[in-house]
Amino acid sequence: TIGTIGTGFPDFIAFQLMNNEKYKIIGVEVKINGTLSRIEKEKCKWYLDNEIFNEIRVARKVKEKNRVRVEYSNVKEILGRMR
Hints:
This protein has two helices and five strands. It has helices at 38-49, 75-80; strands at residues 2-3, 12-17, 23-30, 55-64, 67-74. The longest helix has 12 residues, at 38-49.
């Protein structure tokens, strides 16, 4: 299930049923080039540290010949590369 809440951060919120009673909450931020600003990275870190989201993904478009596909990156990997 995917829902939207205004035009804030993140762009989409997905709910994945893990078992009959528990959901995994995933934030999805859409970036054409897949690059987050410093402020967006700080927001992601805060959301994850405070357990607002279980996961945050960054969606970006990838062109392959005449097609466009969406590729998702896990923010934890992006934050791991931060200085």
